């Protein structure tokens, strides 16, 4: 049965130096050994026997010495292999001391059957077997060379110091598997491995390499040593739970690969998975035999090897009649050909041969059918392992045997440690089949793998393994030779999430290391790593691909900037307009319109406008300590000139008419010279503030970063915006006070219409400044708009003053010159008397008494009149009017000129004002609006006697004649009040 014990069976070749051999002749069974291993067992064993035959036939290698062999079956199980290996070490602890025995004939005592002494062991196959055997052999210093054990743990020379191998460790195989995954841009894979050293260490190295290459593991399953169909079904179910991971890395033994594919086939999963397998699957037929559709497209690794041509002929010609040294060959023959050997020339008893079922008799002339397209891939590595021992023994023979021939005494008892250290680890030879055999410090061979693709042959339509690439410290794959599941050339997709685009990072999904959502970094951030966006440092901005940051170009306003066009154009127009007004005023300096406007303050005001316009060009200039100082001085200075002049004007008007209400006494500081001095004082205050500011905060430049989220570095003046606003507080105060005066004087006579235009100017200026402040501080992130707003606001403020105050005058000067001359005109003169009154009109300077009546009134009418002249008063006049309660006379504005009262040239409409004579004292009182210029002026001069005066009912008035002269109003007592008029138009 499949569980029979095969302990007593040994394949042997007699020789002077014996090499042990360990091969999985049988598969694992339920208890110990199972069925004959058709793929690996007999062919590998025969490869060792063939190689020994070839060495013995070579007179140049180990001359005079015959190599022998003692080969055992491991059944693929470590405990059984360890038990079998005891045969190799029995000679070491059963040796007898001849002196303890006595022979009657006096000869030396010898045992009847001495145990076989081996100088080295070839094997085992599985890593778990090799580990157990290595632990045993090292105790007796017996070198061991494996032809198939690839576990990385066996490279540990502290534990396995007598173990070397002709195959590379699984660390290289793991690297090759990772390179394959990378080659096809797979980032999300599942892994399955067999329990035991081979699968566990191999998959651990794969995971380590995969992590370094950002390859993620979706599902991870282990197949136990005692796996059943249910075990494999559970593995497939787990793999299906991760549908995005189509690629499955398979690091399993051949039998586990078979079970896995069978389970997938039972579920009808043809084409569902892409299998990437280690050399445990390799190019074997067993896994794919009944599952070609499920296995189609699989990529497998196989150690790169070349068929040993002589062995092919040797093996194909073997048959049970001639092959007596292999006790398992009959069993192999029976299983291979499904027949029963009749026992002719059997080397052992029939009881020791494993018969499974009664079959047809074997004829003995059957031919071994090649089960794969090439011989078993480990044959070359067995061949190299045996030759490595032969070359090491040959080198030892040359060193210890004087003649270099035969088995000299120095090689009778070979020191295993010496054989390993001095010879085996130093061998280097060409095996004649493309392999250079040598060992590194860990006893490992160089890594060379073939990349196999299981596909349908397009010509024969049969499934087969095809070599599509190689791995030798690096991957080389011919993509055009690969055919995936479904007979397609399209590379399958195996990833949880697509790679993020340029400028995107991964937002990892909870519980899924390899699944993410791609999101873009903010414009001001660069990609620090694949999962992190980070802001660039101040003054830096990310490259378009977000891989790093670069220094931003420093920006500043220039005269060529597009944002500078409008402010400069507005300023240029303002400068030209102001220059035109100044030129016009100079040309018409002595005309009534210019003189009535207050020439001195007007010129100062125009100069302030020009200064404000020029500020635009300074503000738009590249920042430097000089330009910054000029900016800080110029803005405040220009405004202070304009609003100081306007404030003095409105204050003067307000004081004059306010004073008229209370007293006939002339207000102080209303002369032109006084006005200029007060204006300069107000301007000087701003200048002092500015100089203090420049001292406390010296002018300079700085780099400004208004918003780290915008690609902007601005070169600007070092003073901050708050300081700039504080510097304008004084001018704001001037504007506020000026506006208050404009409101106070809004109802003065319409002839004083300059007050109205000053009011318009102030109201508009307040609106401009109220709009400017929020716009200026609301555009901190756009310095060009901010500077443009400042320039436009300054120019608009100057333009408002220019247009409101000077446009009407310019209009009269240019388009109505007839109104800008002095002309004596008297359209009419009338007076009214009460019905009971009588009057006597005298000519010229008559002083004849006139009867006084109530409400006696004298009116003069003229469409446009300028009044000038001198009012004089004598003591007699004042005394003679002492009895009057109130006399009222319509006048306008008074100025001190040559120590007399002067009525200046003005325009006014309607009743401009009233001058009260009360108790012989002039009291000035302003009751209506004052406008400097009016299109229509109607002069009404009234001399009114208050009805409550109590004076006699008759009053006589002298007639008004001529262009000027003295006129007297005579009261009832004959006394008079003299005043002189001059009328001009």
The largest beta-sheet arranges its strands as 10-9-11-12-13-18-19-20
* Biggest pleated-sheet summary: 8 strands, mixed
Helix content: 25-40%
Q: What is the highest CATH level, the class of the largest domain?
A: Mainly Alpha
Radius of gyration: 61 Å
What would CATH call the architecture of the largest domain? Up-down Bundle
**Number of DSSP strand runs:** 42
CATH topology of the largest domain: Rhopdopsin 7-helix transmembrane proteins
Gap between N and C termini: 148 Å
Note the total helix count: 22
% residues in beta strands: 15-25%
What coarse outline follows from CA principal-axis ratios? rod-shaped
**Helical/strand content category:** alpha/beta
- Low-pLDDT residue intervals, each spanning 5 or more residues: 1-7, 344-356, 823-985
CATH homologous superfamily label of the largest domain: Rhodopsin 7-helix transmembrane proteins
What would a concise description of this structure say?
The chain has 5 domains: 11-94 and 116-166 and 308-344 and 378-437, Rossmann fold; 170-303, Rossmann fold, CATH 3.40.50.2300; 504-551, Ribbon (Tumor Necrosis Factor Receptor, subunit A, domain 2); 562-819, Rhopdopsin 7-helix transmembrane proteins (Up-down Bundle); 828-984, no CATH class.
